[in-house]
From TrEMBL:
Domain HTH APSES-type: 8-114
Protein name: HTH APSES-type domain-containing protein
Gene Ontology CC annotation, any one: MBF transcription complex
KW NADP (keyword) present: no
Organism: Pseudozyma antarctica (strain T-34) (Yeast)
Polar residues bias (residue ranges): 562-573
ANK repeat ranges per the UniProt record: 248-280, 367-399
Domain of life: Eukaryota
Biased composition (Low complexity): 162-180
Listed SMART domains: ANK, KilA-N
Region (Disordered): 106-206, 559-591
Pfam family, one: Ank_2
GO molecular function terms noted in the UniProt entry: DNA binding; DNA-binding transcription activator activity, RNA polymerase II-specific
Length: 653
């Protein structure tokens, strides 16, 4: 076995002492407490990318004894496995020789590896700047946590520098252990060991769930799948929205903001995501959003900024604010339109806080750069003008001793020269591109000077045209946004109208049947009235005939005779003679020239007119009865009114 201590060093991460060895630019760690190794780091040495490492860990490593660690110091995160399993993994990928310095290392009883070089920190490091006494509190709290953690790591390394035994003391055992580590029987006794094993098992299960959640979320962002994972819509009880999902300690909120997924951002915030959570470079989700042009392409940045604007005062590891990152998008990534869109959105939102905004805009990073000096270096006149209008100081100098005015003057001088020399001694044209060697068009100094002025004028005109084009595009974008809003409103109204029409259609489906039923009931009512009237007339006619017949019998008259002088008194007090006298009197009352037949014909005509009028009255009654309704509800109302009016018949109501 190797015992060369120069190839290994010792360090402490998240309070856990480890042996560390740099192999192919990867820090491979071995815990001093139980000799477990970080399988994630071993797979990095193999050269596998993130998806490949995830598949190997899920299919091969995590099926056996392992420990998943998330949170804490970034380099300590990963899947930890016992030493013998780590050696088998190295042999499987033919890197056992590369890992030999860490896997075969046996510490002596008198000394141990030296501290890792990266932990030798000079005490003369400059103190970090903050935006203001209250404005920088957020960034300062993050930075202080990082510094304290690193200081603890240094202290732990120095305290353990003289230890050489692989057997840990109780204080050396990492409190972040998630699953029981294989340990000798003499150290696994007692109630403390049982409690520690139970807690480790519970934590290991929880860590496994978090790792699964992280993989699901990361796969959603790196693939073309547009379906939001269900765990973001309905988060499980153990879901931690602030967990890291990649090697740079980015959270799901960092990814969602960078990609312009506003819906996912809102879901994460509703689940309790922290907008002040930072990655390894101390960058917030708002900073990550401005480092890419996705929110510009989707025109989602105003809505996103409303959700994240409280983190605008944070600074990253390089003392850069979000305004530095916006300008850097134009300077380093060649996205001036996106940078201007982000800058205008933030400045317009903060325009009411002029003094505080000016303090943020004039904040310098660790190179002394302000957003204005960076904008001047990027040659973005729109950004420079926007920053100057809101309090940016053009006289602040960076570590090179230059301020924004110097860069602006250099740019004007560069633009005014028809040809100039680049950094490599190559002649550049007005457009900044190399000039091909051609014969001089003008031999006189006056001609060359005139041509130079013409080129400068043409360049200014082109820049003016470009600015005009940008302005028109901005106006067109506003109109397009308004048109989209109007279209959405119209579509909503159409959908509401369609729902109402559909409801009315369903209600009207039985209208034809109801109409037929009403017509049938109307006809039945009319026939019933006519029948009842006819029956009544027939009944009265029969009763009259019977009365006449009885009168004749009582008077002793022969059938057909009108009277008899010897007739007895009639039951009603009249005699047959009286009846005959009345009949003669009626005949005598007839006008001259009229006989009985003519009178009967006139009476028939009058009877027909009365019958016609009666038929019309019946039709009117039926029509009104139809309009008023004769259903169960009306019948109930009639009964109620009849009872309230002293017991009258419901038909009379």
């Amino acid at each position: 076995m190797l015992t060369d201590r120069s190839s290994s060093s010792q360090a402490t991460y998240s309070g856990v002492p480890v042996y560390e060895c740099i192999i192919k630019d990867v820090a491979v760690m071995r815990r001093r407490s139980d000799s477990w190794l970080n399988a994630t780091q071993i797979l990095k040495v193999v050269g596998l990318d993130k998806p490949q490492r995830t598949r190997v860990l899920e299919r091969e490593i995590q099926k056996g004894i392992h420990e998943k660690v998330q949170g804490g110091y970034g380099k300590y995160q990963g899947t930890w496995i016992p030493l013998d399993i780590a050696i088998e993994l190295a042999e499987r990928y033919n890197i056992q020789a590369l890992l030999a310095p860490i896997t075969t290392y046996v510490p002596s009883a008198t000394d141990s590896p030296p501290p890792a070089p990266k932990h030798t920190i000079s005490t003369s490091n400059r103190s970090k700047k903050v935006l203001s006494a209250d404005a920088g509190a957020l960034g300062r709290s993050r930075r202080a946590t990082s510094i304290e953690t690193e200081s603890e790591a240094i202290g732990a390394t120095q305290n353990n520098a003289s230890e050489g035994s692989m057997s840990p003391s109780p204080s050396d055992i990492s409190s972040s252990s998630r699953t029981p580590s294989p340990m000798p029987a003499d150290r696994a006794h007692g109630p403390y060991a049982a409690q520690q094993a139970a807690a480790a098992h519970h934590n290991g299960r929880e860590a496994t769930n978090q790792a699964r959640y992280a993989d699901i979320i990361l796969d959603y962002f790196v693939t073309e799948n547009t379906t939001v994972p269900s765990l973001l819509i309905n988060p499980p009880p153990d879901f931690n929205p602030d967990m890291s999902i990649d090697d740079d300690e980015h959270t799901a909120l960092h990814w969602a903001c960078a990609m312009g997924r506003i819906r996912v951002v809102k879901l994460l915030l509703s689940a309790g995501a922290d907008i002040f959570r930072v990655n390894t470079n101390q960058q917030t989700a708002l900073m990550r959003a401005t480092m890419f042009s996705n929110n510009y392409d989707l025109r989602k940045f105003p809505e996103l900024f409303e959700l994240l604007h409280r983190s605008i005062l944070n600074i990253d590891r390089n003392d850069r604010t979000v305004f530095h990152h916006v300008v850097d998008l134009a300077l380093s990534r060649g996205k001036p339109h996106a940078a201007r869109y982000y800058m205008e959105t933030m400045i317009n939102r903060l325009a009411d806080y002029g003094d505080q905004l000016a303090d943020i805009l004039n904040f310098q990073d660790d190179e002394g750069e302000t957003p204005l000096t960076m904008a001047a270096r990027a040659r973005s006149k729109r950004l420079v003008r926007l920053l100057l209008e809101h309090g940016a100081d053009p006289k602040i100098r960076n570590k090179e001793g230059k301020n924004a005015e110097d860069y602006i003057i250099e740019d004007e001088r560069f633009r005014s020269s028809p040809s100039r020399t680049g950094p490599a001694g190559i002649e550049l044209g007005a457009d900044g591109l190399p000039v091909l060697p051609t014969a001089s068009l003008h031999t006189s100094e006056a001609g060359q000077r005139t041509a130079g002025r013409a080129v400068t004028l043409m360049s200014n005109l082109l820049h003016s045209l470009a600015d005009s084009y940008d302005s028109e595009i901005h106006t067109a974008d506003k109109k397009l946004t308004q048109a989209h809003g109007l279209l959405k409103q119209i579509q909503t109204e159409i959908e509401d109208s369609a729902k109402v029409a559909e409801g009315l259609h369903h209600e009207a489906e039985g209208a034809d049947d109801e109409r037929k039923r009403v017509d049938s009931l109307q006809l039945a009512l009319k026939h019933g009235i006519n029948k009842r009237t006819r029956d009544d007339l027939e009944r009265r006619w029969a009763e009259g005939k019977q009365a006449i017949k009885r009168a004749r019998l009582q008077a002793g008259l022969e059938p057909g005779a009108l009277s008899s002088s010897s007739a007895a008194n009639q039951p009603d007090g009249t005699t047959a003679g009286d009846a005959e006298h009345e009949a003669k009197k009626s005949l005598d009352a007839l006008p001259e020239g009229k006989d009985v037949k003519t009178a009967i014909a006139e009476l028939k005509t009058q009877l027909g007119e009365v019958q016609k009028k009666r038929s019309e009255l019946v039709d009117t009654f039926v029509s009104r009865a139809r309009e008023q309704g004769t259903g169960k509800t009306m019948a109930a109302y009639r009964r109620l009114i009849a009872a309230g009016c002293g017991g009258i018949a419901p038909d009379e109501v």
